[in-house]
Design a protein that fits this description.
Length: 398
């Protein structure tokens, strides 16, 4: 079997989103530009594979350091024995990062190995996982990082053109009139709305009663109903999520911050969420997401993959969804030219559904010319030290 001949860490930075988006102003202090971190693995048969760890969006140099640490652990070993290579990396990292940063890096290695193996065998990655269960999967548009009505209308028109009928926006508990306005405006276009309450960065996070009051207040302003609330409580509050499920009639979801399948499966078995949102670039790779799908099926809990990184992260989660028979996937709407260029024709959307990719491996394209056009910018990082400009007056949405 082909051995791992080379490992390369790739950091690239690309223009991102709209400079006027609230999240950009609050979390990208150096402007609308985002960095992604990838691992490129070359096998001794000459085939390369790409993987991504979401960590690099926040701490690219930390990502690179952990990649450098991990590289000797896999060199010259069988690149097709993916589970064994993950085990090797965990033996190196689990003592000091059983959860968290190292899991993102292990994800990048695992995804790159899946990509290289698929390309070596001439098949898409989902074929390595038992084959695709369907030819297309419904998507929801993930955007709504907006402060102005014209921004929301622009995104709603984009969804309409693609035939997408589900839309996720970002709202905090004070955004009552704004959220009700979006539900009404989207409903006129046949689009349903879910709300991400963005508590995965909050410390301290809001309480259960805050979410209950928000949902009741929004629903008192409109006959339209939210189709889910995501990350409505803090990342380490599984008991509170379970309590919230019993107090609102809106599906509760979360899990994008969970970095091990073990923890996610514990949350599934504990009935913490109505549906879970694993991310291959966070949880340790595609195989980890497949484990979550299996646990979800056993418990009757739906799995909707999170897809918010670069091209390798997104396609890794999509391949898992096709292999596991996922019913819905996330489609990030914020403009990211590097990601779009890498995915190219493998991310086709027709009538609100993502068509099954057909190229070998993950189906990504990355050339030396592309790398030259998107050089790494150390200032292009997502900062969790939020700049609080304060919310716009909610009365403007009445």
């Amino acid at each position: 079997m082909p051995a791992i001949a080379n490992v390369r860490c790739i950091l690239l930075s690309s223009p991102y989103a709209d400079a006027d988006d609230p999240e950009i102003k609050e979390c990208f202090p150096n402007g609308p530009k985002r960095t992604i971190g990838m691992v490129e693995i070359t096998l001794d048969n000459g085939v390369t594979g790409l993987g991504e760890g979401y960590l690099a969006v926040f701490a690219p140099l930390v990502f690179k350091s952990i990649v450098d640490l991990c590289t000797p652990q896999v060199m010259s070993k069988d690149g097709f024995e993916i589970a064994n290579r993950v085990r090797d990396l965990r033996s190196l990292c689990d003592y000091w990062s059983l959860q968290g940063a190292a899991r993102h890096v292990i994800a990048a290695f695992e995804i790159a190995l899946q990509d290289a193996k698929g390309k070596s065998l001439g098949v898409p990655v989902y074929d390595l996982l038992g084959g695709a269960k369907m030819d297309r999967v419904p998507i929801y548009g993930s955007g709504g990082c907006c402060d102005a009505k014209e921004q929301f209308i622009r995104e709603l028109e984009q969804l309409q053109k693609l035939g997408i009928t589900r839309y996720k926006i970002r709202s905090v508990k004070s955004d009552i009139l704004r959220t009700a306005w979006v539900l009404e405006e989207a409903g006129k276009r046949g689009i349903q709305v879910g709300v991400d309450m963005c508590q995965n960065l909050a410390d301290p996070p809001q309480a259960v009663h805050d979410v209950v009051q928000f949902v009741e207040a929004v629903h008192s302003k409109t006959d339209r109903r939210m189709i889910f609330v995501e990350e409505a409580l803090g990342p380490d509050c599984p008991e509170e999520f379970r309590e919230l499920r019993g107090k609102i009639n809106v599906p509760v979801c979360g899990g994008e911050i969970v970095t091990t399948p073990k923890e996610m499966i514990e949350r599934i078995n504990g009935e913490v969420y109505d549906f879970v949102q694993p991310d291959a670039s966070v949880m340790g790779g595609i195989s980890a997401v497949m484990d979550v799908f299996e646990a979800g099926k056993a418990k009757g809990t739906d799995v909707v993959v999170h897809a918010w990184g670069g091209a390798a992260a997104i396609m890794a989660s999509y391949h898992a969804a096709f292999a596991a028979g996922g019913k819905l996937v996330e489609y990030p709407m914020l403009d990211f030219p590097l990601g779009a260029e890498m995915i190219s024709g493998q991310g086709v959307i027709v009538d609100g559904q993502l068509l099954r990719p057909t190229a070998p491996g993950l189906g990504l394209t990355l050339t030396a010319e592309m790398e030259a056009r998107y050089p790494f910018d150390e200032a292009a990082v997502y900062s969790c030290a939020l700049i609080d400009f304060g919310p716009p007056p909610d009365s403007s949405w009445g």
